[in-house]
Structures are given as C-alpha cells and as structure tokens.
Specification:
By secondary structure, the protein is α/β, with parallel strands linked by helices. It has three helices and three strands, in the order E-H-E-H-E-H. The chain has one domain: 3-Layer(aba) Sandwich (Rossmann fold).
Amino acid sequence: MDRVRPDFDYSQVLKVGDTVQDVAEGCNVGALTIAVTAGTQTAATLEQAGPAAVLPSVAELPEYLVKHGYIPRPLSGQ
C-alpha cells in the first residue's frame, strides 16, 4: 500500500531521524529532513544520505530552526 499522498505538501513537514533510512524517507517525499547523531550511525554516514543538516542531538533542533528562519526567534524573557 502506498502511503504517500500526492495531494499533500510534504515541504511543510519536518522529518528528524538518526538513521540513513529515516533521512531517505524524509528526502524522498520532499520534507525538511534533519539527521541527528544520537543513534548508532556516524555524522559522515548520515550526511551521505542528503539531509538538510546533521545535528549532534534533537536538543540542537530549535536553535537550528530559528537560525535558518523556519520558526521565529522567541521574544526575550520567554
């Protein structure tokens, strides 16, 4: 069964994963795909799969999304 919906805008989706398979899934549908090295695969291995970025952990994700304009910077004091 094909679960990819052709009428859905996958460019509005954020896919985060720690394997080459995770990265391939996101990239194949056109999602913003971020790899994290919190799993068993190295940054070099994950980079070869073509994510937008490879981060050391999901804790780095908010800063990445702000820095690259995907989400607004929080107001001071929040």
